[in-house]
Amino acid sequence: MALTQDEIQNLNRQFKGIPPEEIISWAIKHGKKSVVTTNFRPYEVAILHAVTEVDRNTPVIWCDTGYNTPQTYKHAEELIARLGLNIKLYVPKQTSSHRDAVMGIPQIDDPRHQEFTEQVKLEPFRRAMDEHKPDVWFTNLRKGQTALRDSLDVLSMSKDGVLKVSPFYHWSDVQLDAYLKEHGLPNEHKYFDPTKVLANRECGLHT
Q1: Helix, strand or coil for residue 197?
Q2: For the chain, what is the domain count?
Q3: 162 belongs to a structural domain
Q4: Which residue range(s) make up the domain with 38?
């Protein structure tokens, strides 16, 4: 979806305080091809529920690093079945067992950490976006998660020219807890991202 920065800023002012479903409906109506990405981390169920309530056929791209917790995998299976997600699974080209034998999970200051992140997250993500070629990308980015995300908004443009739509951008954990309770949705907090190490660190997907 081709929008200028001025148009994005104007829309962000309008969208502040607007219900997520209205923002999602607007994006789907004005875009050509939408996708939603997920890693089934805590509170991801909110964006998955909100998008599928508007359009159940929206492709749900899951780039599985292969290092998720058992709780995350069970949570993912529950949501896929319960919400009828149109899941599109992407995994690294190398198995986690192979990588564990030759590299393991490098620490953040290890020179191999960049290669690790490329293998388990960035390459599968690029492959997914190349195959689906969306112009609208729904995410659950929220203000306060990282310094980079604090500089974004409900609408932002990716480096590849895809419109990122984060309908819950201004929502707090308390508000999301209320949303999940209202809709009877489960949450799961036992989550592990091997590329970040620290919770407030970017892996490179949104930079």
Answers
A1: coil
A2: 1
A3: yes
A4: 5-15+23-183
Residue 39 is assigned to a structural domain of this protein:
yes
Backbone dihedral region for residue 161 (phi beyond 0: left; psi -120 to 50: alpha; all else: beta): left
199 domain-assigned: no
Q: Are 113 and 58 in contact (CB under 8 A)?
A: no
* CATH code assigned at 42: 3.40.50.620
Q: Is residue 193 part of a domain?
A: no
The model's pLDDT over 7-44, given as tens digits with 9 standing for 90+, comes to 999 999 999 989 999 999 999 999 999 999 999 999 99
Separation in Å, CA 159 to CA 82, 200, 204: 33, 21, 11
Task: Supply 32's token pair.
Answer: 């050509």
**Residue 37: enclosing H or E segment and its boundaries?**
strand 34-38
Question: What does the pLDDT average to over 64-86?
Answer: 97
Contact between residue 36 and residue 7 where contact means Cβ atoms under 8 Å apart: no
CA geometry: angle 76, 79, 85, nearest 5 deg: 105
